[in-house]
Amino acid sequence: MESHSTIKNFITILTFSAIGLAALCGCSIASKLNASTASDQTDSPCEIVIEHLTLGDTPMPDLSAVEDAISKITLSQIGCTVKIENIPISDHATRISLMSAQNDQLDIINTGRTVSLAEMAADGILLPLDDLLAQYGAALREKEGNLLKANIIDGSIYSVPANLYCGGNSGFLYNQNMASEYDIQVSDTMSIQDIESIAAALKTHEKYLLSQGDGSNNPILLGTFFPSVVPVGSSMYANGISLSGDSGTDIVNVFETEEYLEYCQMLRRWKENGWIPDDSLTSGLLVNQLFQSQKIFMTWLTANPVEVALQTKNYTFPVNMFSTTTQTPLRTSQIQEDGWGISSTSQNPEKAMEFLNLMYSNAEISNLLMNGIEGKEYEKISDHIITYPDNVSADNIGYSRYFSVFGDFMDIYQWQPVTESFYKDLENFQNSTTVSPLLGYTFDVSSVTSEYSAVMRVLSEYLPPLECGMIADVKGAIENMNVLLRDAGINRIIEENQRQLDEWMRNLS
Questions:
Q1: Which residues contact 20 (CB under 8 A, 6 or more apart)?
Q2: What are the sequence ranges of the domains in the chain?
Q3: pLDDT digits over 210-235, tens only?
Q4: Half-sphere exposure (CA, 13 Å, Cβ side) for 446?
Q5: Is the pLDDT score of 343 beyond 80?
Q6: What does the alpha-carbon distance between residue 359 and residue 406 come to, in Å, rounded to a whole number?
Q7: Do 37 and 30 touch, CB atoms closer than 8 A?
Q8: What share of the chain is helix, strand, coil (3-state, %, to 5)?
């Protein structure tokens, strides 16, 4: 969950019109449908459009140069050119909800970032990838390995994990300068009490502990502070949770638990104490923007070597991380929260898969997408470590990666102050990762889509103010919300999730 992990989870209920067969036609597919059309398309190379999620609308003057450098490689190797489509993270859910109606050419899209993979599959946004992977994804299949099974829904793979080294403990990225300036002591693992002590110290310097942005349809930090609470079958808590950690197979409604009540009461206490912003619901500022401007001390992330390396270059101050949980196993939800899918409006699905395969096997392409052009965006200080060239900084760089993850981190240059030891640390991290017993189970929401839509409408009303500590009568608000959730059909969703999990467990034995 980055640094994607650091963004708020926008969850939008999507309704799509049927997609005609023509929208699925591409350079290769067209030959099966219309020989003359295929002949016309071979006169010029296909263009593959890949989505790049950004923080905002900041111009990237070197974007076309990066596209040209990538296209020079892809033209010779797979016969297509590449366009990078920058989309602000705040617009992503809306953009993909309109993609079908507008017949957008957006071939390769981020999955699980702002809309869950299960929703995207159920709503027809994504193509199943099994045949495409078998024909054009040899390198991907080898590198992804067992991670792919986490993205199987109703028997088909709908996404490939973007980060090959995902997982890790829940935690926070924090501002090291602020910690030093205010004499704040941070250890590798911190409790709620430790964090509240930091919040009290920060208030004396008129700084906030953290922000929830303008809230979310999902209780973002619940599992961070209450590790026994584990969503089952996806990252969406509305689908039901286990209260017995990763070994639990009894699914319950999180919003009726004591843990959820305590969580919301904690956030209300933090707001009343002045530890989180008063204007979260009205400022329009994202969490990352507040962290970047040093208004808040920390922001959520999954604590692992990749996340800190990714975040290092995004800020003008040094950052570090700490955990709130220990020994968290790799979960389906962690894998699903950051993936690449091929959209059902793709004009060239075969070429899209060929490009994904190349992105994870060609170090030059992955470095162009992640870091830009050597000499413009970065210069090397050792074999694999880079820094800004003279007169270049995070404020004026011509191309920058924000939320999307491109390629294998073992092939990607890392930004100073990361050192060459990163690659060994990453290898050790991967080798030490344990696996949840429920890895590979995904809840298919297609049979409860109407209930899901109704439940999300209720959560859209109640969760943002609860998440931001804006409701004084927390217990009363939760009780009212649960009445509406039951009327909307949340129990039907949880019952269906339990049925699917029980069947999945039987098939394992």
A1: none
A2: 21-165+335-418
A3: 999 888 888 889 999 999 999 998 88
A4: 11
A5: yes
A6: 7
A7: yes
A8: 45, 15, 40
Sign of CA dihedral 163, 95, 129, 70: negative
pLDDT of residue 43: 62
- Buried b / exposed e along 242-259 (16+ C-beta atoms within 10 A): bbeebebeebbbbbebeb
Residue 347, CA distances (Å) to 70, 84, 162, 253 in order: 20, 16, 22, 41
**Residue 233 tokens, joined:** 């079958």
Element (H, E) at 303: strand 298-303
3-state DSSP assignment of residue 18: coil
On whether the pTM is more than 0.85, the answer is no
Domain 21-165+335-418 top-level CATH class: alpha beta
Mean per-residue pLDDT of the chain: 88
Phi-psi group of 170: left, alpha or beta (phi > 0 → left; psi -120 to 50 → alpha; rest → beta): beta
String of b and e for 463-492 (b: at least 16 CB within 10 Å)? bbbbbbbbbeebeebbeebbebbbebbbeb
